[in-house]
Prior knowledge:
The protein is globular and about 45 Å long. Helix content is 9%, strand content 27%. The protein is mainly β. The longest helix has 7 residues, at 30-36. The protein has a domain at 53-189.
Amino acid sequence: MFLECYVMEDVIEEVKAPKPQTGQANPHGPETADRDRPAAPETAQAGRRTETLSTEDRAQDRWFMEDRGNRRVPKRLDVPNEALVSAAGPLKLTGNITLIDEAGQTHYANHLTLCRCGASRNKPYCDDQHMEVEFFDSGSIPQASECRQMANPQMLTVTCIKDGPLKYQGYLRVYNRKGQQCLTMQGALCRCGRSTKKPFCDCR
Ligand code: FES
């Protein structure tokens, strides 16, 4: 069964709703990812109480790690790269993500919660300020088309542009809880909260 999909200029293919398997990280977001994960990954935050963690810490706490040689590195997940657009809240990225911050520093992650309201004091990460500023967005994905199954999990590079959007390169399924989705290969996601084409940047 193919899902209805929403399209931008560079939408390319149709995608089936992925079915997370037991023992595999769930690509649909942190709530279910936590539920389906067989065990918590080892992280720098191991042993700390979850409720005391900042959002950035919580995002890092959801990195999936593996041993490679004598190093512990972010795991390459066998799942598509996905961005869940939460209504009136952040972007939740899951997949094989390389994040380049405004300072040019490179970070690797399998899960990130990124601000899209523009009010975070810890950009690019969400720090829950969207509730303080009463950020409102329906989370809708504005343009629609069909797209096809993505071949294999791909790498995704997300670059934080100073005073600008989150530019991304690599296959990315953008979706919401209403069943709207699109598959794109490159583009820019709004992180100031003012785009008229949210979740995408309208370059204003
Ligand atoms: S979306 Fe959470 S602080 Fe901006």
